[in-house]
Amino acid sequence: MSTSLLNLDKCTIRFGGLTAVSAVDMQIRSQDLLGLIGPNGAGKTTVFNIITGVYQPTSGTITFNGKPTAGLKPNVIAKRGIARTFQNIRLFPTLSVYDNVRAAFNLRLRHRLAHALTRFPSFYREENQIKARVMEMLEIFGLAHEEHLLCGSLPYGDQRRLEIVRALATQPKLLLLDEPAAGMNPREKEELMELIRFVKEKYQIAVLLVEHDMKVVMGICQRVVVLDYGIKIAEGTPDEVQKNAKVIEAYLGEEPAKVSQETSNARRPTPDAP
Amino acid sequence: MKHRHVKQLGLIAAILLSAVASAYSGAINSYYLQVIIFVGINIILAVSLNLINGYTGQFSLGHAGFMAIGAYVAAYLSTEQSAGIFNALGGVGQFSIATVFLGSLLFGGVAAAIAGLAVGIPSLRLKGDYLAIVTLGFGEIIRVIIQTTEAVGGARGYSGIANYTTLFWTYTIAALTVYIVLSLIDSTYGRGFLTVRDDEIAAEAIGINTTRYKVTAFTLGAFFAGIAGGLYAHTTTYINPSGFDFQLSIQIVIMVILGGMGSTWGVVLAAIVLTLLLEYLRFVAGYEWLPDLVRRIAANRTIIFSLVLIGLMLLRPQGLFGALPRMGAAKRVREPRRKQKPNEPGTGVTG
Known about the structure:
CATH topology of the domain at 1-81 and 172-245 and 269-274 in chain A: Rossmann fold
Oligomer: heterodimer
Largest sheet of chain B: 2 strands, antiparallel
CATH class of the domain at 1-81 and 172-245 and 269-274 in chain A: Alpha Beta
Shape of chain B: globular
Number of strands of chain A: 10
Radius of gyration of chain A: 20 Å
Strand content of chain B: under 5%
Structural class of chain A: alpha/beta
Distance between the termini of chain B: 49 Å
Structural class of chain B: mainly alpha
Shape of chain A: globular
Order of helices and strands of chain B: HHHHHHEHHHHEHHHHH
Largest sheet of chain A: 6 strands, mixed
Distance between the termini of chain A: 25 Å
Strand order of the largest sheet of chain A: 6-7-8-3-9-10
Helix content of chain A: 40-55%
Strand order of the largest sheet of chain B: 1-2
């Protein structure tokens, strides 16, 4: 598929004897809104960490924008255009809301140490551009009135939003959201779904969403990938996935005997090592 | 548009002020002059360590080691290698002295920076206490190496260094250090140092090369420590390896902690106050009307430092000044949030 933005090809990662993710294939096209779901411990966050370079896959390849990303450090991958948020919010607690977003402009910065010291007009020009962009983004996401606050003093929903804004400030082509709805009440979840749709349209980016909350996933995703014990068990539209027998099994455990068999298979180290 | 040049104007004002003060320095009692110069040197040391420990969040205990490198390299160059330059510049004069002095300071700083780079790169795999121990060990290694190097006097120390350090140069360099650290932090590039301190994983995720930032902080911090060492050597005219022991490193760390990690002005003030306090304690130790115990405590810096640190940690762990009531506030707000979602795993990378 030539339009594929991110391509995971038979990605496997093992931690000692535990195969956390096993031969997962996944394609994300540009401007896709793909959901990644699965029961607890299915390996969703691990897939995230493989894509963003936090972990290196034991075998398999990942290509982003046609180029392999294996062996690259997270900051390089971020520069290539993959941004992420974290399951438990990771903002910079001693920085203001404004500076949290400003810091994300760092990776496309033209000025360096020497410019920060000599402070020629070009330095101020770039700083002013960044300031305008940050304020514009804070404005769009309704955080402008809180720009001087420490991010820790924001309400929970605003912290989530700020993390998304910070990720968007790196100008990604693909945004990974790790359980953005965690800890939100139904109203906040509605707002979040609205926000994700808005972000995708406004910035013309692809979104990969890991989420526990089925209402959120089924509500906004065009396609859904289901993981269970590190294996991809289904992929399709939300409707297809919801009717898929394997998925129902994974979530509800309809046939206990079969489930346990699959489990033990998945957890055993697969023989085809690299 | 006007406020953008506040830093540059402040720098120029500080340099002019030190030039004026320096012109009248002949009128100052030479002991007081020495103390004032020590204050300036400690400002350089504390502000540069604050870049590593305060802004970048890497706990270094090796600042005395970097200072020693700068002191010995600068002293050696100005004492042994300056004849050629003096000849070329037509004898010993204002200009040739300044050239020799600044040249040797610069080389001392660069040598220390190279050492900072060398320590920085392998130490980056370490965090917190482990990094502190490695840097502490580094400082001690430097001291032992100097002790066994006969070319610079070994354990006897190195004497006969010219007294080149003036009030002007000390405070010009101190002002430059403050200017550089402040303008660095006050830029989008410089905010990267703070993100490394706050959350390395999140910093990497937004494309910050945390390794690069840490090495930069170490190198730059070591550079200024080296220059401070050169100034120190040229004001005491005699340096001894045991003068650069880990107690000195701890003394600088205490200035940073007292001032408030990550607050340059707080650290400047702490450097001034602590340096003066330590000098004053020499007199206290000599007051015969004081009880013997008080005098003995006053004579022992280690006890005073320990008391200052214990008191500080109990009463104001974030330091006296600085960015830091904010830090406490952030923590307080974070607590209830955790309770909101009890089923969440501890870290974002796992799970």
